Amino acid sequence: SWFFLRWIKEAEKFLLISNFKRLDSTMIRMLRRLTTITIFFVTVLILMKLFGLDTAPFLAVGTIGGAALGFGGKDIVSNWGAGFMLYLTRPFILGDYIYLPEKNLEGMVEEIGWSGCLIRDKEKQEAYLPNSFFTTSLVINLSRIKYRRFAHTLTLPLESSAKLPLLMQSLEHILQSSALL
């Protein structure tokens, strides 16, 4: 177990340094946590077997306890399940700037955890949202938008209306020269 835990730590360092395209730091942390939990669970079962304890009742109680925990703590379980789905589907990653219309909140994703996400808004305030919120709500990832619309209203005095055609020609020329039109 000690060997595998050390190996996981070294593998995490290697994956973080090598910058694989399919794995970001959040996914690497999630994989490390899942393998650590698995190694811990298997180690406990092996130790129980070495000390002569029967593991079948332990596993049976564990599954019954897991079911009871699932029904009793459905919010916790739904947050964990939603967190796992966030890791797999990755609608946003660390550092993305997202907008949540239902909460009227936009900010940068600073942490994606097992049960919730930390988002820092424009005023640098922290908003900690449960992961289950993201499975039922609209999330607009502003970091992944390729094109943005620009709308601006120009207020001109009435006496400059004669110069309006010249102004429009100048604006069209500027937009065409910058390949925006």
Description:
The chain has helices at 2-18, 25-50, 55-72, 74-89, 131-136, 164-177, and strands at 97-100, 105-112, 116-121, 126-130, 140-141. The chain is an alpha+beta fold. It has a five-stranded antiparallel β-sheet with strand order 4-3-2-1-5. Helix 1 (2-18) runs antiparallel to helix 2 and helix 3 packs across helix 4 (74-89). The longest helix has 26 residues, at 25-50. It is elongated. The N and C termini lie far apart (62 Å).
Number of helices, where a helix is a run of at least 4 consecutive DSSP H or I residues? 6
Strand order, main sheet: write it out: 4-3-2-1-5
Over the alpha carbons, how many angstroms does the gyration radius reach? 26 Å
Q: Uncertain segments of ≥5 residues (pLDDT<50)?
A: none
Major sheet size, sense and barrel closure: 5 strands, antiparallel
Beta strand %: 5-15%
Shape: elongated
Structural class designation: alpha+beta
Helix content: 40-55%
How are helices and strands ordered from N to C?
Answer: HHHHEEEEHEH
Average pLDDT metric: 82
| Span between termini | 62 Å
- The number of E-state strands comes to 5
